[in-house]
Design brief:
This protein is α/β, with parallel strands linked by helices and 273 residues long. The chain has one domain: TIM Barrel (Alpha-Beta Barrel), CATH 3.20.20. Helix content is 41%, strand content 14%. The protein is built from eleven helices and eight strands. Helix 1 runs parallel beside helix 2. The radius of gyration is 17 Å and the shape is globular.
Length: 273
């Protein structure tokens, strides 16, 4: 079985969108993730929204290399959520042929969060995009069971999705059985990295590791074999390894190739077991 591989935005955060396509092609990836919408003030993102020349350059690079865009980031559902705030993100995603948008649940009022998620799915549907809810242990959607409950309470929209990340699985109360219990139609792709598992980390530590200090698959103690075996083997695998200190000594292309090679080894290990 041939599994598609992607390089997530955090693997390519030093690249412009056209550069990201070229780097992914040299590394042997099938897809990339892009972040046209800033995660938090001051964080890196790629200029695409309101930049038609850069958009055209990115599309040209995609045609030349065959690398496609799988996901775009990031929508945060907070207490003041307005689904149409991100219309420009949907439009850019559709123009790039993206399949998914990464979504974070940041509203502690679960009933309101569910209503907002339903409105988001409705707003995104005309653009052919899925709303992939990523559970993260420092947010009101801390684990896989909560993510599934939010989607069910939102009415199970046709373009709903859940995005697993092994770092968040290993640092939350999510079990491998919880991953197996996610309905197949809600799984569009999954992420991979490594790190140290546990439930003892502070919020600051959780965020720092996720955004700045992930490990290559095989370097940490996360049960990646169990993680990969618990999820469908045909799902696209998005390598999301960012390590700001280590990246200072290596260029984006070499880092991408190193990360992707480690991800492939982790998959081969899971398949052999």
């Amino acid at each position: 079985m041939t599994r598609p591989y992607a390089l997530a935005f955090l693997n390519l955060h030093r690249c412009t969108a056209p550069e990201a396509v070229q780097v992914a092609a040299r590394a042997g990836a099938d897809f990339i993730g892009l972040r046209p919408w800033q995660n938090v003030p001051g964080s890196p993102y790629q200029r695409l929204i309101g930049e038609p020349a850069i958009l055209r350059e990115t599309q040209a690079a995609m045609r030349d290399t065959g690398v496609r865009v799988f996901d775009v980031e990031i929508i945060r559902i907070d207490a003041g959520f307005d689904a149409h705030r991100w219309d420009a993100l949907y439009e850019v995603g559709a123009a790039l042929g993206a399949k998914a948008v990464t979504v974070a649940g940041d509203d502690a009022d679960e009933s309101r969060l569910c209503d907002s998620y339903a409105r988001l799915c409705e707003a995104m549907a005309p653009f052919g995009l899925t709303a992939d809810l990523e559970f993260t242990p420092w947010t009101p959607v801390p684990d896989a069971r909560t993510a599934l409950r939010v989607i069910e309470r939102a009415g199970a929209p046709a373009n709903a999705g859940i995005l697993p990340d092994p770092l968040h699985v290993a640092r939350s109360h999510t079990t491998l059985q919880d991953l197996r219990d996610i309905p197949r139609h809600l799984l569009h792709y999954l992420q991979i990295c490594d790190g140290e598992p546990g439930l003892h980390f502070t919020t600051e530590q959780l965020i720092h590791t996720a955004r700045c200090e992930r490990l290559l698959p095989g370097e940490g103690r996360i049960d990646l074999r169990g993680y990969l075996q618990a999820l469908p083997a045909d799902l696209p695998l998005s390598c999301e390894v960012v390590h700001l200190e280590r990246e200072r000594a290596i260029g984006p292309a070499d880092w991408a190739a190193q990360c992707l090679a480690a991800c492939r080894r982790a998959v081969e290990d899971a398949e052999r077991a």
